[in-house]
Design goal:
CATH topology: SH3 type barrels
Radius of gyration: 33 Å
Strand order of the largest sheet: 4-3-2-1-5
Largest sheet: 5 strands, antiparallel
Order of helices and strands: HHHEEEEE
Structural class: alpha+beta
Number of helices: 3
CATH class: Mainly Beta
Number of domains: 1
Distance between the termini: 96 Å
CATH architecture: Roll
Number of strands: 5
Shape: rod-shaped
Length: 137
């Protein structure tokens, strides 16, 4: 046997039927050659690590007093459900830091015991997380 073999002698041969083994379905054969992810979940971890969070800004005593006065003034108007805009820090659940969010809504409750504000859609904001609060009316 010299030269290149062109396999023309086996092109039209039928595939043998085996007595003890059934043929594997085509879908199962394809699964054998599917890509293998040895590090399942690793790409998600990389994305999470690369996600940027902000650090909480520490307010000075003057800013804390200003916010406290605004909350006190709003507590006197709670029956009218004044519309407010609040910028607050939302801690990240997965890593250190978080992000600043701004929400606008009707003020429904000021909980002095738990030190938080409740907006009409059920959002609870801790006093210590508030960066700014203004009345929108």
């Amino acid at each position: 046997m010299t030269g290149i073999h062109d396999y023309s002698d086996i092109y039209n041969i039928q595939r043998p039927d085996l007595k003890y083994h059934k043929r594997m379905p085509i879908a199962d054969r394809a699964a054998q050659f599917a890509p293998f992810a040895a590090l399942t979940g690793f790409s998600g971890m990389i994305e999470e690590t690369g996600r940027i969070t902000e650090e909480r800004i520490t307010l000075d005593d003057k800013e804390k007093e200003r916010i406290s006065r605004r909350i006190s003034a709003l507590s006197k108007e709670i029956g009218n459900a004044p519309e407010v805009q609040i910028t607050y820090f939302m801690p990240d659940r997965k890593k250190t830091g978080g992000s600043y969010q701004t929400i606008t809504g009707k003020l429904t409750k000021i909980d002095l015991y738990n030190k938080r504000i409740v907006i009409n859609d059920g959002v609870r904001i801790e006093f210590e997380d508030i960066k700014n609060i203004t009345r929108k009316d």
